[in-house]
């Protein structure tokens, strides 16, 4: 079984438990800290995967590295350690955040423009596209991309709304030039 598939199952189980106990925000915050620790400390990951480090030593290392965690988070880390799946923690965090955003009807968008968006433009885009997607909130990250010439391109998850001049020119070229489809 792949690490990603296992990570998805762990994330869903943790999400369901956190939702049931009404501690979604707490678990989300703890997960972000745990992910940051693993990303910033390569040695920790190597020690937890090293075959010459005993299970008891690994357990102690986890307990010392992550004091003050909630019971569900502590149990998750212990389970991941026991099942030798500590490498899946980043995927678990990402999937949990995805589930949390879905639960709260929140989406994230990257808006590519030639010049920075004003706050009014961000609000208009957020309002318009959140309604189209059936979301309550749309968080926008504005990326400057001079290659689009004008207009904007919006990426929300795997979906791209291309209203850029470059996109329009490319579509026009495909229609006019044979063999360009």
UniProtKB/TrEMBL annotation:
<dbReference type="GO" id="GO:0046933">
    <property type="term" value="F:proton-transporting ATP synthase activity, rotational mechanism"/>
</dbReference>
<comment type="function">
    <text>F(1)F(0) ATP synthase produces ATP from ADP in the presence of a proton or sodium gradient. F-type ATPases consist of two structural domains, F(1) containing the extramembraneous catalytic core and F(0) containing the membrane proton channel, linked together by a central stalk and a peripheral stalk. During catalysis, ATP synthesis in the catalytic domain of F(1) is coupled via a rotary mechanism of the central stalk subunits to proton translocation.</text>
</comment>
<keyword id="KW-0375">Hydrogen ion transport</keyword>
<dbReference type="Pfam" id="PF00213">
    <property type="entry name" value="OSCP"/>
</dbReference>
<comment type="similarity">
    <text>Belongs to the ATPase delta chain family.</text>
</comment>
<keyword id="KW-0472">Membrane</keyword>
<keyword id="KW-0406">Ion transport</keyword>
<dbReference type="InterPro" id="IPR020781">
    <property type="entry name" value="ATPase_OSCP/d_CS"/>
</dbReference>
<comment type="function">
    <text>This protein is part of the stalk that links CF(0) to CF(1). It either transmits conformational changes from CF(0) to CF(1) or is implicated in proton conduction.</text>
</comment>
<keyword id="KW-1003">Cell membrane</keyword>
<dbReference type="GO" id="GO:0005886">
    <property type="term" value="C:plasma membrane"/>
</dbReference>
<keyword id="KW-0066">ATP synthesis</keyword>
<dbReference type="GO" id="GO:0045259">
    <property type="term" value="C:proton-transporting ATP synthase complex"/>
</dbReference>
<protein>
    <recommendedName>
        <fullName>ATP synthase subunit delta</fullName>
    </recommendedName>
</protein>
<keyword id="KW-0813">Transport</keyword>
<dbReference type="InterPro" id="IPR026015">
    <property type="entry name" value="ATP_synth_OSCP/delta_N_sf"/>
</dbReference>
<dbReference type="InterPro" id="IPR000711">
    <property type="entry name" value="ATPase_OSCP/dsu"/>
</dbReference>
<keyword id="KW-0139">CF(1)</keyword>
């Amino acid at each position: 079984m792949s690490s990603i598939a296992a990570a998805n199952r762990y994330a869903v189980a943790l999400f369901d438990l956190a939702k049931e106990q009404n501690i979604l925000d707490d678990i989300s915050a703890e997960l972000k800290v745990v992910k940051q620790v693993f990303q910033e400390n390569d040695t920790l990951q190597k020690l937890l995967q090293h075959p010459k480090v005993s299970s008891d030593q690994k357990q102690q290392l986890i307990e010392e590295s992550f004091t003050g965690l909630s019971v569900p988070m502590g149990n998750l880390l212990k389970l991941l350690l026991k099942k030798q799946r500590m490498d899946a923690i980043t995927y678990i965090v990402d999937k949990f955040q995805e589930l949390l955003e879905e639960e709260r009807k929140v989406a994230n968008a990257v808006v590519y423009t030639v010049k920075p968006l004003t706050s009014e433009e961000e609000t208009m885009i957020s309002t318009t596209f959140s309604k189209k997607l059936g979301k309550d909130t749309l968080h926008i990250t504005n990326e400057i991309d001079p290659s689009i010439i004008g207009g904007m391109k919006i990426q929300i998850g795997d979906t791209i709304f291309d209203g850029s001049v470059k996109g329009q020119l490319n579509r026009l070229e495909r229609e006019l030039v044979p063999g360009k489809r």
